[in-house]
Amino acid sequence: MSLSGKIALVTGGSRGIGRAICQRISSMGGHVYINYVANPAAAEETRKIIQDAGGRADIICFDVADGEQAQSAIKQIIAEAGSLDVLVNNAGITRDGLMARMKESDWDLVINTNLKGAFLCAKAASKAMVKNRWGRIVNITSVIGFAGNAGQVNYAAAKAGLVGLTKSMAREFASRNITVNGVAPGYIVTDMTSSLSEEIQDKIKAEIPLAALGTPEDVAGAVAYLLGDDGRYVTGQVLHVNGGMYM
Ligand code: NDP
After folding, report:
1. 168-213, pLDDT tens digit by residue?
2. Within a 13 Å sphere around the CA of 66, how many CA atoms are in the beta-carbon half?
3. Least buried of 6, 65, 122, 194, by fewest C-beta within 10 Å?
């Protein structure tokens, strides 16, 4: 129970990979704040799963891309729970399209949610961590940020940007005993990938040495390593969880 007594915020914790991360943090003894922006039912379901398993969870609705909302939500968590020790920047969206046809608004939305959102939440959360001289931040990036992908210039740029954010934050905060790492999933079965046709999923599988898509739990396990005692000496790194599709 290496997160016993710790307070954690998982952005986009209501569904998919975020839900598995919330469950995992709870099983490590942490009190989880589940963030979402649009779908309260999924957040409620995640809270119920955690509470039924004997864990502590609360829900906090805010848009990570909105600086005022992110700051006041994190202030609220610190006021209610007494601190904020763990932040997992997991909220993310896609707005795919070939670059020639990509709207500026789709570029902005993806960069603001996936990259600026992580900066805003980490900036607000790190204040409490600096005060406590302890903190763990994990940014969920993507294989696409490393390999690139036609039709995802906005998403790839945001996810690659998260790597630079991770490494620079790791250097800035190491002296305060705050580690900052990334986890880069490959193709994971969630709502984000369920819209892909069976044909495309088969094509993707053919490019994965382990010949299968991953599960949210596969990603949550990597996050748990970085948050737990075993990962205490690891900072500024990105752990790839992709079945070998990018090495
Ligand atoms: P899902 O689409 O299943 O869930 C996205 C989550 O993010 C939801 O909880 C959603 O809340 C929340 N969210 C979206 N926009 C915002 C916002 N502006 N503010 C706060 N919360 C928001 O995504 P996945 O679980 O598939 O992905 C999670 C992360 O993993 C993302 O960062 C994604 O880029 C990354 N990833 C996913 C891969 C995959 O194959 N699935 C591969 C590589 C990386 P709500 O329900 O309220 O909209």
Report:
1. 999 999 999 999 999 999 999 998 888 888 898 899 999 999 999 9
2. 9
3. 194
- CB of 37 shorter than 6 A to ligand 1: yes
Cα distances (Å, whole numbers) of residue 121 to 20, 91, 146: 20, 11, 23
Give which of 175, 166, 160 is closest to 246, Cα–Cα: 160
19 C-beta closer than 6 A to ligand 1:
no
Cα 115 to ligand 1 centre (Å): 13
d(CA 234, CA 141): 17
Q: Which one of 10, 11, 36 would you pick to mutate in the ligand 1 pocket, going by the greatest count of ligand atoms within 8 A of its CB?
A: 36
133 C-alpha vs ligand 1 centroid, how far in Å? 29
- Give the global pTM: 0.98
- Per residue in 72-111, pLDDT (tens digit) is 999 999 999 999 999 999 999 999 999 999 999 999 999 9
Q: Which of 37, 120, 162, 195 to mutate to test the pocket of ligand 1 (most atoms within 8 A of CB)?
A: 37
C-alpha pair distances (Å), 59 with each of 136, 163, 195: 20, 28, 27
Q: What is the mean pLDDT of the chain?
A: 97
Among 155, 187, 225, 246, which one carries the catalytic annotation?
155
Provide the b/e sequence for 122-132 (b: ≥16 CB within 10 Å): bebbbebbbeb
What pLDDT was estimated at residue 77?
Answer: 98
Beta bridge partners of 140: 183
d(CA 38, CA 61): 8
176 C-alpha vs ligand 1 centroid, how far in Å?
29
